[in-house]
Amino acid sequence: MSPNEKQPQMNLVQTPDYRESYANSVQVRVSVWDFQLVFGLATAESPDQVTIRNQTAIFLSPQQAKALWNVLGQNLAQYEQAFGVLNLEPQSQNFPQGSVN
User: Fold this and answer.
1) Beta strand 35-46 pairing with 99-100
2) Total number of domains constituting the chain
3) Fewer Cβ close by (within 10 Å): the C or N end of the chain?
4) Which residue range(s) make up the domain with 40?
């Protein structure tokens, strides 16, 4: 974008069916056309059994997935600068590949 071009004004509007959810599990599925992020709640039913209840799936184009990756990276860097480095636990064998828990 050249210096003479103005950014368009962004209006954020919540639709009537807007909702907020909490997820502690994210599964990523990839195809040639899109990325699918499946958000859910993981609970330990017992020490050797975890149940993931999938709640919502969001489809993103590869371009939007990369833009999300960039925004998350920038925000995580700022978070760690303010609050300290986040350490991830070793991935449990109980969770499917591609999950972020």
Assistant:
1) unpaired
2) 1
3) N
4) 25-84
